[in-house]
Design brief:
The protein is α+β, with helices and mostly antiparallel strands and about 300 residues long. The protein is built from 6 helices and 18 strands. Belongs to the PhzF family.
């Protein structure tokens, strides 16, 4: 009989029942792949993170991520949640860890704040694909329920990936994002056609002293009807042409989850070299909602 400790954590918030919930299993080396998938399905969060021992020469921790239906390469909010739990369990001082995921080894910084923590995750460099063709673009916006006149001017709809791809769909008003009533079945069908599971609808407004973004993310093809606050969707906005960075470091606040009554936010930190974004980090807080243990044969 094995006992498995599990945490339920709300990420990108410091309030319970807000932000994005993630399961965290801190000592998962004893688990088989199928057991990880079954635990993720039972918890039914958008993602559950399983922490495995590191290799001292290369990385400090290895994290695997499962939705209720599939393993995925990386997940922003589940990383924030997992490292938050790890820091609390080990009473870590401010430090930087090397975290292995399917996308590679990513630096993750822990900032200790009087017994609590902020976590800063560096993302893999985003890859922007060519804009989707007209027929696919029209099929996507029809499935999302977006009117043509609601799209942001001169902004193509395209797939971007930091290891886990999303379709970025820029629109011109927050109100129109909240009114979306997507056809989840059609989005799932389109995911197979374009080989991309997530659809991130967003807008950007310039609010002094910084940019603020707002979005909603749908990924029904991998069992996520809607995701409350999505690190792998908001981070690439630091490279988007609608954001105009200046100086050596640029940051903005990414907000999401209002339509689900789970508002949350993160800081997106952009390092600039030669006038162009060179490195993207996302910074967030978290809060443990509960912990429990299950016994496995």
């Amino acid at each position: 009989m094995r006992t498995v400790k599990i945490f339920q954590v709300d990420a990108f918030t410091d309030q319970k029942f807000k932000g994005n919930p993630a399961g965290v299993v801190p000592e998962a080396d004893m688990l088989a792949d199928q057991e990880m998938q079954e635990i993720a399905r039972e918890l039914n969060n958008s993602e559950t993170a399983f922490l495995l021992k590191g290799n001292d020469l290369e990385y400090d921790l290895h994290i695997r991520y499962f939705t209720p239906t599939a393993e995925v390469p990386v997940c922003g909010h589940a990383t924030i949640a997992a490292i938050y739990v790890h820091a609390l369990q080990h009473a870590l001082p401010s430090c930087e860890l090397r975290v292995k995921a399917q996308v590679g080894i990513l630096p993750v910084a822990i900032h200790e704040l009087q017994g609590d923590y902020e976590v800063v995750m560096e993302q893999a460099p985003p890859v922007f694909e060519e804009p989707l063709d007209r027929l696919i673009t029209e099929a996507i916006i029809d499935a999302l329920g977006i009117k043509r006149q609601s799209l942001a001017a001169d902004s193509p709809i395209q797939i971007v990936s930091t290891g886990h791809s999303k379709v970025l769909i820029p629109v011109n008003e927050e109100r129109k994002i909240n009114e979306l009533k997507p056809d989840l079945g059609e989005l799932s069908r389109l995911s197979k056609e374009i080989n991309c599971n997530g659809y991130f609808v967003f807008c950007i407004t310039k609010m002094s002293p910084e940019y603020v973004t707002y979005g909603r993310m749908f990924a029904p093809a991998i069992g996520i009807a809607e995701d409350p606050v999505t690190g792998n969707a908001n981070g690439p906005l630091g490279h988007h042409h609608l954001v105009k960075p200046d100086g050596a470091t640029f940051q903005f606040t990414a907000t999401q989850g209002n339509a689900m009554q789970r508002p949350g936010s993160m800081k997106v930190i952009v390092d600039i070299q030669d006038g162009k974004p060179s490195k993207i980090k996302i910074k967030g807080t978290a809060v443990i909602v509960f912990s429990t243990a299950i016994k496995l044969d």
